[in-house]
Design a protein that fits this description.
Layout: H1 3-10, H2 14-21, H3 29-39
Helix pairs in contact: 1-2
């Protein structure tokens, strides 16, 4: 699926998808849920988590 197709299916422009890809922008929770539905995955799969320890 192209960035343009994903953008069309969730109601944003292609530039927004590109900016999410290069970490200049982030999906709202609603957008993340829509993207996950379109890509047939979990919204959790769209994010990279880092847990920091303050020990």
């Amino acid at each position: 699926m192209t960035q343009a197709e994903l953008a069309r299916r969730i109601g944003v422009n292609r530039q927004f998808i590109y900016k999410v890809k290069v970490k200049e922008r982030f999906f709202s929770l609603e957008q993340a849920i829509l993207v996950a539905h379109v890509l047939n995955c979990s919204a959790h799969d769209l994010y990279e988590y880092k847990i920091h320890s303050n020990r």
